[in-house]
Amino acid sequence: TEQTLARVKPFVTMFRNKMITIDGTLLRARDSSGTWTTPANGLSLTSLKNALNACRFGAVYNNRLILCGNPSLPNQFYVSDPLDEAVWDANNIVDITETSGEEVLGMGVVGSHLLIGGDNFLRAYFLGNANAQDWDNDLISGQVGPVNWQSFVSADRWAGNESASSYTFFWTKRGPAMCAGGGSNLPSLVPLWEPLRRACLGENYRGFTGFDVSEYSNIEGVWCPEFNEVRWTLCSTAAVDSKRNVILCLDFDSALD
């Protein structure tokens, strides 16, 4: 069945062999037969149903679908039951309390942790085994965090019989950054912006034309395994100024050295 999505780029992920789309208007799921469902609309609690449908991005973590980005409640995230996108409990809503009251702008998974952040903060959440309210969290940074969910890129690296090391890349107000983790270890923030520091400040440096991140309407990231690169596109706020559009390519291995 053909679906009509909001005229925005939806967040899309796979969960329980279904494609999940989140666009800020309606939470949708499509199974392998091509059948679309609206998981939140079966909830009896209207406020929770409306909140889930209003979310703009999410993640799959610990066999649960996590939703966030509700403009009316920008400091909350919502947690589904294990392996079921249609079962939600209002008691499992998590409030993110930052001293500055910042809204959450992006989230991703690295190792066994759920990364959640905004312009000036990044936290790592870990769900324990007791129940869906058994969350612990640690502050990774109180200065920088993701500027949006579209810039998040995740990649894993296996080494022989060892467990995978997990890496999540995203864009901050200072430029690109990476969180590295593996197993139950707390993720660490690795700044990648230093080679671009002058450029991100809008300065021209050694023949490279500077750019100010605030001049760009959107920043999106993608993992290109065939080239072993993480790539970001920065689109200018001025539609006619295409010369200001930028594609930045990061060699994955160089970020690990």
Principal-axis shape equals globular
- Regions with little confidence, pLDDT below 50 for 5+ residues: none
Major beta sheet summary: 5 strands, antiparallel
Beta content comes to 35-45%
Number of extended strands: 20
Please trace the helix and strand order, writing H or E for each element: EEEEHEEEEEEEEEEEEEHEEEH
Look at the structure and give the mean pLDDT: 86
Share of helix, binned: under 10%
Structural class: mainly beta
For the record, give the distance between the C-alpha atoms at the N and C termini, rounded to a whole number. 47 Å
**C-alpha Rg (nearest Å):** 19 Å
| Number of continuous helical runs | 3
Q: Quick summary of this structure?
A:
This protein is mainly beta and 257 residues long. The chain has helices at residues 46-53, 197-200, 252-256; strands at 11-15, 18-22, 28-30, 36-37, 57-61, 64-68, 76-81, 84-88, 94-95, 106-110, 113-118, 121-127, 135-141, 153-157, 165-172, 175-181, 188-191, 216-224, 229-236, 246-251.
Task: Describe the model.
This protein is mainly beta and 257 residues long. It has helices at 46-53, 197-200, 252-256; strands at 11-15, 18-22, 28-30, 36-37, 57-61, 64-68, 76-81, 84-88, 94-95, 106-110, 113-118, 121-127, 135-141, 153-157, 165-172, 175-181, 188-191, 216-224, 229-236, 246-251.
Topology at a glance:
Blueprint: E1 11-15, E2 18-22, E3 28-30, E4 36-37, H1 46-53, E5 57-61, E6 64-68, E7 76-81, E8 84-88, E9 94-95, E10 106-110, E11 113-118, E12 121-127, E13 135-141, E14 153-157, E15 165-172, E16 175-181, E17 188-191, H2 197-200, E18 216-224, E19 229-236, E20 246-251, H3 252-256
Antiparallel strand pairs: 1-2, 2-3, 3-4, 5-6, 6-7, 7-8, 7-9, 10-11, 11-12, 12-13, 14-15, 15-16, 16-17, 18-19, 19-20
